[in-house]
Amino acid sequence: IKRITTHTIREMKARGEKIAVLTGYDYSMARILDDAGIDIILVGDSAANVMAGYETTVPITLDEMICYASAVVRAAKRALIVVDLPFGTYQGDSSDALKAAVRVMKETGAHALKVEGGAEIKEAVQRIVNAGIPVMGHLGLTPQSIYKFGTYTVRAKDEAEANKLRADAQLLEEAGCFGIVLEKIPAVLAAEVSANLNIPTIGIGAGAGCDGQVLVVHDMLGINKGFKPKFLRQYLNLYEDISNAVGRYIQDVKAADFPNDQEQY
Ligand code: KIV
Ligand code: NA
Hints:
By secondary structure, the chain is α/β, with parallel strands linked by helices. The chain has two domains: 6-234, Phosphoenolpyruvate-binding domains (TIM Barrel, Alpha-Beta Barrel); 238-265. The protein is 43% helix and 14% strand. The protein has helices at 6-14, 27-36, 47-50, 62-75, 94-108, 122-130, 146-149, 159-175, 187-196, 217-220, 238-254, and strands at 19-23, 40-43, 80-84, 112-114, 135-140, 179-183, 201-204, 212-215. The longest helix has 17 residues, at 159-175. The model has no long low-confidence stretch (mean pLDDT 98).
């Protein structure tokens, strides 16, 4: 099996092949995603929400991210593995950012990192890239800034915010990022930004003009009950399927129907 690299990802954009990305946080799920042929597994800090039950991505720690990322690395033979740097590890001193980045690379074996923001974090991005660590950017709705936004609604709808996003995208490409996630922005803006960049864009709620797409795996499998934004295509309703299976198991145990003669020694 040939490993997908940041180089492969850039070639995919050059030849117009869309890039398929899903999040992953654990060994068993990552093995399924990798065997199915996913290009990138993003160990997103959405782990805070879907794995750890936090209300936002703000509280998750570097140690927690390293734990999730290590499990994914042990599972994936082909996919490129990108890990979110959590809130607080790269927004201040760029030497602290580099330390956090180096920890993830050394302790997990992942291949790349993702950070949220543009001009504000330019120094940190450059410093990490200069150390030889591939960095993916993330613009638009950046959930680590939820308390600044105050809402999870679509970003960059006004011209000022759209212009800042255009400039940030160029800046991230110049700083050496190998790709940029565009989250919850108008499709027309995402298509324009994607066309103007040499590096690929990975959209979530950013329309068909992006070079790839990403979804949170729990959302697309229907595990995350009640979360159904417009951009989400839900491929399964695993919440219901798992709930039904567990209900049947409970019934079987209570009725002394499980285990049967063939299911014991
Ligand atoms: O944490 C995450 O899952 C993400 C993707 C939604 C882009 O950052
Ligand atoms: Na994230």
